[in-house]
Amino acid sequence: MRTKLIAGNWKMNKTQADAKALVKELLPMVKKSTATVVLCVPYLSIDTVSKLTKGSVVKVGSQNIAWADSGAFTGEISAAMQKECGVEYAVIGHSERRQYFGETDETVCKRTVQALKNGITPIVCVGESEQQKEAGQTNDVCSTQIQGAFAGIEARDAAKCIVAYEPIWAIGTGKTATAEDANDTIVCIRAEIEKLYDKETAQKILILYGGSMNAKNAEELLSKSDIDGGLIGGASLKAEDFAQIVTAANK
Ligand code: PEP
After folding, report:
1. What local confidence, expressed as pLDDT, does residue 1 receive?
2. How far is the CA of 215 from the centre of ligand 1 (A)?
3. Whether the predicted model's global pTM rises above the 0.90 cut
4. Has 76 been annotated as catalytic?
5. Ranges of the chain with pLDDT below 50
6. Residue ranges around ligand 1 (CB below 6 Å)
């Protein structure tokens, strides 16, 4: 049995004051959750959110990780630095980073390795564009991204990773994949992981859906056999909306 996980991706939103207010509102709403709850917050709010959530069900995540240990990489934040501040999860290879910041399958892999090396759980994002979906390439695109992200990673480390299937056309658009389509693609992603490793590893890995998941559609998406949780952008910015998704994951 895989424990469901709901992760909020705040992207570049919320000042520290906003972060404090949201977390204080959210904590009592999700305190009984048996599903894991993660907040992937901007770097500058990590310390604040870590302190506020200490001892609660809410875990702290970041939205990226440097692919080197340390050194002359201006503007980067290493996995060790993040771990020291309480980071337990990191979103890696989000489509916005692939689109605007030159992220490739190779750098996604290097960042994933850094996360694993430092005891941070990577949430590796994959997903197709609208054009690729229309060309019937969804499964191929996701498989290629999975192969790239996991290149050289051993099964025992792969089993510690989380994958988020996020169709790019669904991110921030209000268009959600149908629960059936999302589940079918996730089944294919799991099959690709089984091909790369083995059945046990594939069955262990949590695979989330992300792309306009909200309080209304969460329950249906999360009821599907292979959807192990959600990566939530817009709907994670309001405590009540996010808490409703957490509630759906607990059903
Ligand atoms: C995301 O940023 O990962 C995401 C899924 O965003 P949204 O929920 O707003 O579509």
Report:
1. 84
2. 13
3. yes
4. no
5. none
6. 9, 11, 166, 171-172, 210-213, 231-235
